[in-house]
Amino acid sequence: MTLYDELKARGLVAQVTDEEEIKELINNGKATFYIGFDPTADSLHVGHFMALMLMRRMQKAGNRPIALIGGGTGMVGDPSGRTDMRSMMTVETIQHNCDCFKKQMSKFIDFSDGKALMLNNADWLLKLNYVELLREVGACFSVNNMLRAECYKQRMEKGLSFLEFNYMIMQSYDFYHMFQTVGCNLQCGGDDQWSNMLGGTELIRRKLGKDAYALTITLLLTSEGKKMGKTQAGAVWLDPEKTSPYDFYQYWRNVDDADVLKCLRMLTELPLEQIDEMDHWEGAQLNTAKEILAFELTKLVHSEEEATKARDAARALFSTGGDKSNMPSTTLTAEDLTDGAIGILDLMLKCGLVPSKKEARRLIEQGGVSLDGEKVTSVDQTVAAVALSGEGVTIKKGKKVFHRALLG
User: In this structure, how many other beta carbons lie within 10 angstroms of the beta carbon of residue 78?
Assistant: First the structure.
């Protein structure tokens, strides 16, 4: 099976500009391709997983990936998939986030000996002269065509700023610049980027009279059509300080039955033949498939050791007795207590189990919170310092989320 055929079989390919040419490029290791990452946080998250795995697969087949960090475009903000305008970031924040990205990407992509590049579009976008850019590039874009693009339609309803309107031109210029400077001949990205990517191929054709190509990746959605990688407490991050390896494992262990095989195909490196054998699995066998998915992805992001610890901890928690040693935990200090105790709402917030006290209150009122096996029935319940000593207390949220709180 060729690389392109495997990408199709795994359900990764959404749209392409020229299928035969793209097949020729990537199957023969001739593609120098880029994927853009806007540095809107100091960690990558589950939403980036598809892109990272595509880069990894294509690099293994001899192609050269470029991870393009949007230090320049990040100062404008991508309107794609947004109904509101992104908040503006400082240059210092963007640089810090870029540094964090490279460290995380290195787990997926080999940057040694020129096998992959990491570039920052601030290096060329911030040096552009506005009038020169208008004369050189502006004439190549039709405002009528731009306004028909899906990424702008959504923002037009609430008001599209001129700042955001320039995003497509900037992304197109990135492709045009890298085509000339590092031989980049293919752009890949999420399916919501299709219009921006076509802008780049068209700019290269009009300015240079040459062909460049675009391939979009299927967005990682649940069977209900919602983006994967969100929980009640927020995004599922790749940084272990923001989402622990155990919580990361549990996120994938708890995906819906309807999504597990799709995730195995799209995100893991397991052979398709092995995954295809799971097509007829049901009941308890699907739980096994979820364990496999969670283990494989945690191993990729955090290490086999962390994946094993997370799996063992998850299994132990649902067996008699339970093992707290590998359970996610939060260590409180005396400053977190008031009169030698802490309220349950504050405790859940401190442990990162909820984004707000309002959400904690709702869960308790619905009977979804337990403390050391006893259901919490009052939002005013407190936990004393003596209970937090030693091994601490175990908070259970819902049926599957466990967290230990102890006093340091």
Answer: 22
pLDDT in tens, 343-364: 999 999 998 889 899 999 999 9
Distances (CA, A) of 59 to 4, 179, 242: 13, 18, 28
Residue found under tokens 């991508």: 78
The per-residue b/e assignment along 319-350, b for 16 or more CB within 10 angstroms, e otherwise, is: eeeeebebbbbbebeeebbeeebbbbbbbbbe
Residue 171 is labelled as binding a ligand = yes
**Quick one: how far is CA 309 from the chain centroid?**
23
Is 167 marked within a binding site?
yes
| Dist CA 67 CA 178 (whole Å) | 12
DSSP result, 59-111: HHTT-EEEEEE-TTGGGT---TT-SSPPPP--HHHHHHHHHHHHHHHTTTS--
Which neighbouring-strand residues pair with 383?
342
Q: Which amino acid is at 230?
A: K
Task: Tell me how crowded residue 182 is: count the other CB atoms within 10 A of its CB.
Answer: 14
Retrieve residue 21's tokens: 């040419």
Dihedral Cα 54, 58, 59, 62, nearest 10 deg: 180
Question: Are the C-beta atoms of residues 192 and 38 closer than 8 Å to each other?
Answer: no
CA dist., res. 80 & res. 90, Å (int): 21
Closest to 354 in 3D by CA, of 369, 340, 338, 335: 369
DSSP H stretches of helix in 215-303: 245-253, 260-267, 272-276, 284-301
- Residue 268 is predicted with a pLDDT of 95
Residue 34 annotated as part of some ligand binding site = yes
pLDDT at 86 over 70: no
Would you give the end-to-end CA distance of the chain in angstroms? 55
What is the number of alpha carbons within 13 Å of residue 65 lying toward its C-beta?
27
